[in-house]
Amino acid sequence: MTKEIASLGYTVYFEKNLDSLASFISTREYSQILILVDRNTNDHCLPLLQQVIPQISDYDIIEVDPGEENKNIDFCIGVWKTMLDFGADRKALMINLGGGVVTDLGGFAAATYKRGIDFIQVPTTLLSQVDASVGGKTGIDLDNVKNIIGTFTQPQAVFISSLFLKSLDERQTRSGFAEVIKHGLIFDRALFEQTQYVNLESDDLDDIIYRSVAIKNEVITQDPTEKGLRKILNFGHTIGHAVEGYSLLHDENPLLHGEAIALGMICESYLSHKLNGLKEEDLQRVVQRFDAVFDRYTLKTEMYDELLMLMQNDKKNEAKQLGFALLADIGKCDYNLFVEEADILESLNFYKNLPI
Ligand SMILES: NC(=O)c1ccc[n+]([C@@H]2O[C@H](COP(=O)([O-])OP(=O)(O)OC[C@H]3O[C@@H](n4cnc5c(N)ncnc54)[C@H](O)[C@@H]3O)[C@@H](O)[C@H]2O)c1
Ligand SMILES: O=C(O)C(=O)C[C@@H](O)[C@H](O)[C@H](O)COP(=O)(O)O
Ligand SMILES: [Zn+2]
Predict the structure, then answer these.
(1) Whole-number Å distance between alpha carbons of 108 and 152
(2) Which of 233, 310, 324 has most ligand 2 atoms within 8 Å of its beta carbon, as the pocket-test mutant?
(3) pLDDT classification of 202: cutoffs 50, 70, 90
(4) Where does the pLDDT of residue 55 fall: very low under 50, low under 70, confident under 90, or very high at 90 and above?
(5) What burial letters (b/e) apply to 33-63, b meaning 16+ CB within 10 Å?
(6) 240-257 in b/e burial notation, b at 16+ Cβ within 10 A?
(7) How many A from CA of 231 to the centre of ligand 2?
(8) N- to C-terminal Cα distance for the chain?
(9) So what's the ipTM on this one?
């Protein structure tokens, strides 16, 4: 059965067989179809797409290398050039088939090519299904500063099939689960509680995917361009993005987005407790929740200056003050809170000194 959510002028479809994708394409008159994949989604997801919509046989493939380190201007130029080589005009449609790197990069390339062509998101990771494919944030990183170049451009539609998740490895699934826990923490205590009972390896994830998108949609439809409320979707990201950027630059096996924001959510829950009324027992529950899913990352005091520098670039900052969204309770998040460096360092120390 198809479930749908009406978003910002487009529909998010939840259906294993992607029937609505076939009818979406057959009812629109696109001059050309471009499918953006990375190497892994080319191998694992494109065959599935071809299988479920065999009537779509005429398309051009653009392939990028997988991974966050490629969500940058060089790869974006490569995508734009390939679009030109394929002779894509303004009536072309871009299908972004992949995780958040492909949906962010492909959305950005489409939003800017010839001042914008239509694109649709077909997310293939848990993270991109519960978060990245919905809401119209497109973008790329610059010098490991996360998503610093980008647009708010909504897709024409989003098609979510949990069948794609069968080939996803466990580490990636866990990374996506961090954003599900985030949605519970900021908006829905019951979802936060439910995450304790989810077995990521064996459970059907359709229900939590749908609930996550419903929560995100509730927020973005009230504030599409992050003037206020949408900032709550950034809980854990002021510190998390800095740690992710740091790790991309320095670690051989860098943290994934969800792993970094899980760390960020622990630190920012500490700040929520110290500065915004989150109860001590709820702080402990947040720590336990993330400990049940993620290994700890080794923070060292030598990293702190660089982390603070990276935080200077956060889009929630104002007048050089570091901007945060902080929990008041589990299921309730406030935004436009500005935090002193000393408190941020204390929160990093809180994480660093947590008992194993
Ligand atoms: N725009 C937004 O609102 C938003 C929200 C959250 C995160 N993001 C961004 O999303 C990115 C992270 O997304 P991600 O975690 O999906 O990472 P990703 O796109 O790098 O995908 C993770 C890995 O899984 C592989 N893969 C994808 N689908 C697969 C499948 N079905 N089977 C096997 N392998 C598969 C990819 O090739 C990649 O190696 C970050 O750049 C983050 O900043 C954006
Ligand atoms: O959709 C949003 O709004 C979010 O903040 C969702 C985040 O999970 C996501 O990581 C987003 O890309 C962060 O955006 P940024 O503006 O902090 O770069
Ligand atoms: Zn995120």
Answers:
(1) 9
(2) 233
(3) confident
(4) confident
(5) bbbbbbebbbeebbebbeebbeebeebbebb
(6) bbbbbbbbbeeeeebbbb
(7) 8
(8) 45
(9) 0.99
CATH number of this structure's domain 3-167: 3.40.50.1970
Residue 215 above 90 pLDDT? yes
Q: Which ligand is nearest to the CA of 316?
A: 2
Catalytic residues: 115, 137, 179, 216, 226, 230, 234, 237, 241, 257
Helix axes 206-222, 170-187, angle to 10 degrees: 50
* Residue-level pLDDT at 203: 87
Q: What is the pLDDT of residue 139?
A: 98
- Protein residue with least CA distance to atom 15, ligand 2: 147
Torsion of CA 63, 67, 69, 70, to 10 degrees: 10
Give pLDDT, residue 53: 80
Report, as an integer, the average pLDDT of 147-174.
Answer: 97
Beta bridge partners of 159: 13
The ranges of the chain annotated as CATH 1.20.1090.10 are: 170-353
pLDDT given at position 79: 98
- How many angstroms from the chain centroid is the CA of residue 115? 24
How far apart, in Å, are the Cα atoms of 275 and each of 242, 264, 353? Answer: 21, 16, 20
Kindly report the backbone phi and psi dihedral angles of residue 336, in degrees, each rounded to the nearest multiple of 5, phi listed first. Answer: 60, 45
Q: Check whether 355 has a pLDDT greater than 80.
A: yes
Helix (H, G, I), strand (E, B) or coil at 323: strand
pTM, entire model: 0.98
- Name which residue sits closest to atom 2 of ligand 2, judged by CA: 233
What is the pLDDT at residue 123? 98
Q: What is the CATH number of domain 170-353?
A: 1.20.1090.10
Q: Which atom of ligand 1 is nearest to the CA of 67?
A: 20
- Could you tell which of 234, 259, 268 is best to mutate to test the pocket of ligand 2, judged by most ligand atoms within 8 Å of the CB? 234
Q: What is the mean pLDDT of the chain?
A: 97
User: Looking at the chain, which residues constitute the CATH 3.40.50.1970 domain(s)?
Assistant: 3-167
Given a cut of 80, whether residue 1 has pLDDT beyond it is no
